[in-house]
Design goal:
alpha+beta, L,D-transpeptidase catalytic domain-like, 3 domains, twelve-stranded mixed beta sheet, 6 helices, globular
């Protein structure tokens, strides 16, 4: 049974397409590379989840002035950078959006005026017998240096794993689903994140430890404001904190077996594996929000393309392209619409 819903995630549009308000940040240093390093340290401290792409884009705004201060010969340059003002706020809100069969989560900063794409992180999701569920949730609890108890009933007699490098939860946990006890956390098996198909958890969402460390710092410094938890940024103590309402942030989990997006190469489509076989057996409505489950049908792909990009590809060609993709497209590969359009136009003219 196919699910014929169309769900659009936020577009990861080019940063150059958005009007960004910036604040100047000036560094005096002995070299440009030293200034760049000082800037990056400042940004990582203020907004730890910033992607490397954002850092490099901000560095590229540099304006360099040479100094002639004979009293301080180690300081030769004054360099000014333009930092997007939204990354300098004291309190921030984010959306953490995961697409289950894509095995990736997308991080956005949200405000009343705008939504800004921050970064994409690889994930491990639940295996077919312990699925990760689709739905709109809120992060409501965090755990620092957690213990872990194997959920397998046959291992109930085994002791809990204490905090530390060998703990399957890693160093930090973000709870988002009170009903199913699923959450985001780190891992003691980082090699799994390098696999192409990553559905082998007990239902929780595993993250790279470096990324979960960034999220820990961001949550403790910029999101939680009901209590000062900044002393836990570098702490290895076990701690659980239940968010006050003001601290909570949205977590959106999709099950979508295709993605239509754009990058520097243009508009593209990617197909993903229906890892839970929802095309044959519909997901359990008790645990899943069915409006967030979208399968790779011709109708769904065409409807989303036209909603996002209009009729930049003629309807007749779009029908041919989507038929071709569904019959021949390889999963987890990008297919650019401009290339496909030229391919079909050429074929029809021969």
């Amino acid at each position: 049974m196919a699910i014929f819903s169309c769900v659009n995630s936020y577009s990861q549009e080019s940063q150059s397409q958005k009007k960004i308000v910036t604040t100047p940040y000036t560094v005096d240093a002995g070299s440009q590379s030293e200034a760049d390093a000082m800037l990056e340290a400042h940004l990582r401290d203020r907004f730890s989840i910033l992607s490397d792409k954002w850092i490099s884009d901000i560095i590229a705004t540099q304006k360099v002035a040479q100094l002639n201060d004979t009293t301080n010969p180690n300081v030769m340059y004054r360099i000014t950078y333009d930092i997007p003002s939204q990354f300098l706020v004291d309190t921030a809100k984010i959306l953490w959006e995961l697409n289950i069969p894509q095995f990736e989560s997308h991080i956005y900063q949200i405000s009343a005026q705008d939504t800004t794409f921050i970064d994409t992180w690889p994930n491990v999701v639940g295996r077919i017998t312990d699925k990760t569920y689709a739905g709109n949730f809120q992060a409501f609890r965090i755990r620092n240096w957690p213990t872990w108890k194997d959920p397998d009933p046959t291992k109930a007699d085994l002791p809990a794993t204490p905090p530390g490098p060998g703990n399957p939860l890693g160093l930090f946990v973000v709870h988002y689903d009170e009903n199913s006890l699923r959450y985001f956390h780190g891992t003691n098996k980082p090699g799994v994140l390098k696999k192409k198909l990553r559905y082998e958890s007990h239902g929780c969402v595993r993250n790279d430890n470096d990324n979960i460390q960034k999220m820990k710092e961001f949550v403790l410094k910029r999101i939680v404001k009901s209590k000062d938890l900044t002393n836990f940024v570098k702490s290895k103590k076990s701690m659980t904190y239940n968010f006050e309402e003001v601290d909570k942030f949205p977590v959106r989990i999709l099950y979508k077996t295709f993605d239509i997006n754009q990058d520097e190469g243009g508009h593209f489509v990617m197909l993903f594996k229906d890892i839970y076989n929802y095309g044959k057996k519909a997901p359990d409505a008790k645990w899943n929000d069915l409006s967030l489950v979208t399968l790779s049908t011709k109708e769904n792909i065409i409807a989303e393309y036209q909603k996002e990009y209009g009729l930049s590809v003629p309807q007749e060609k779009l029908n041919e392209i989507v038929d071709y993709l569904l019959a021949n497209g390889k999963e987890y590969e990008k297919y650019y619409f401009e290339d496909l359009k030229q391919q079909f136009l050429t074929n029809n003219n021969q």
